[in-house]
Amino acid sequence: xxxxxxxxxxxxxxxxxxxxxxxxxxxxxxxxxxxxxxxxxxxxxxxxxxxxxxxxxxxxxxxxxxxxxxxxxxxxxxxxxxxxxxxxxxxxxxxxxxxxxxxxxxxxxxxxxxxxxxxxxx
Length: 122
Fold this sequence. Notes:
By secondary structure, this protein is mainly beta. 14% of the residues lie in helices and 43% in strands. The chain contains 1 helix and 8 strands, in the order αββββββββ. It has one helix at residues 2-18, and strands at 31-36, 41-46, 52-54, 66-70, 73-78, 83-91, 94-100, 105-115. The chain has an 8-stranded antiparallel beta sheet with strand order 3-2-1-8-7-6-5-4, with no helix packed on it. The longest helix is centred in the first third of the chain and has 17 residues, at 2-18. The protein starts with a helix and ends in a 7-residue tail after the last strand. Mean pLDDT is 77; it is low at 1-22 and 118-122.
């Protein structure tokens, strides 16, 4: 009986401690985030159907910015995939990842600003 109780307590402790760790999946659709890397910060809005809006000052072609979530991995791209980004959650409201284009590769971070409704945009 003591052994069974001990095993139950051990399992409860293990499972409660393993939640909300790196790799947990959260839905980013209809959410707004602040993107930052070594040289710039701007806002991103992950709209339904994979559409991405940003306040990036150099993004002049807004119709070709997209995102895609497959399980724990999320990707987004700007300007017909000239620059691409791949990341995973490091917490419910924080994301870290790598961005790249034909010339460079860099680290970036996203911090959730708010959960939004489908009608909101930047």
